[in-house]
Amino acid sequence: MTTDATLIRAGYVLTAANPPVIADGAVVVRGDRIEAVGRYADLAPRWSGAVTVEDPNGMLVPGFVNTHGHFSEALTTGLGDRLSLWEWIAAVVRPVGPHLTREMARVGTILRGAEMMLSGITTVNDMFVCMPGGGEVSTGVVEGLEALGLRGNVSFGAQDLFGDWDDRAVLAEHRGLAEAAQDSPLVQFRVGVTSIVALSDRLIDSSAELGAELGKPLHAHFHEVREEVTEARLRFGSSALEVAADRGLLDEGAVAAHCVWLSEVDIEVLVDRRVGVAHNPVANMILGSGVCPLGRLSRAGIAVGLGVDGPASNDGQNMIETLKTAALLQKVHHLDPRVIDAPTALGLATIGGARALGMADAIGSIEAGKQADLVLLSGEAISTTAIHDPLQTLVYCLSGEEVRDVWIAGRRVVQSRTIPGIDLASVRSRARRLAGELAAKSGLPSRLAGSR
After folding, report:
1. CA dist., res. 69 & res. 354, Å (int)
2. Which of 67, 121, 203, 380 could make an SS bond with 199 (beta carbons 3.0 to 4.6 A apart)?
3. Tens of pLDDT, residues 56-89
């Protein structure tokens, strides 16, 4: 058959669906969709005219879904490793926020978005935290995502209790970002909130009203550290999740990042409002925040995905590293190697993340009719030389260097570990200059000297 399709063959297709593994499998891509999934021997005769991409020893997996991150931290990696979250926000995030520009947002998104894609991420849920600039700063994220062809949910991290932030400017930043995403085929807008305890009562209500007006769900941090839980109870008499639910912020489709310190009432709120959770194991470990209760969330039927978090709270943007860390953290925390297995861990990075973002009908698994977001992992690496169990190999053996090719909506955006159309050398050069400028203006070196 002569077609306009692409036939991708791999030694193993890991579907994150049923069946979970297809040995010597293949996927047919036509346009932006998956046309067929099955054994190579069955599909090859039917699609004999298709363009063929193959790695008979490799693995084909769904594109990874990064459920939480901050491109606003793209130029501030490797800082404050001895700081807790509250200290880190004061020493890094707040000083940087007033000096971020649209150009920094665009270049930083391309730089760190490329890093994500080269670890297999095809969808990112981002929150850009900066001083509001009338809708003109965070829009650089949309420009960066479109340049890469990276699928994304974008939000502006609103707050008004720290620094001279005017509510009208905050809402203008939201609206500017929403307008920038409106005509993008790959980018969607969410209403962002840094943390309930960082918002005045007026901005809490304004944020809920904006979400209702635009029909857009929430992306916010919840219950990341005990200090946040205590502060919310002292101020409101209840938890941040309870406040958000009572004030109209948790309409269906909301995503709650972290959720480390949860009461049983908080779990009930998540279930009742069908809130997805973004688990960020590496950032939680670096900042000493605690361990997300994955078992409790799973037993309650809550959708959980993985997040690499920001480049200043994780430092790396590698989903394969995050995937392994998520599994190991649960095992050592519970002192039980059986508490999580490889298929469950892979599910967090794929279909679990898609469910958490309300996108499971389109992405997160390799099934006919879904968007063709796919990652081909090379079978010619040392780590993939002896594959006995492909699921365990993916979760525990890889580094990210095995990512060979990546497709997003049927377009090959990574080819042989290069990103066509992106001059990464020029991006890195520009990013270095901007990072130096940002550090100098925000005084980061001197502010952090005492943490060493």
Report:
1. 15
2. 203
3. 999 999 999 999 999 999 999 988 788 999 999 9
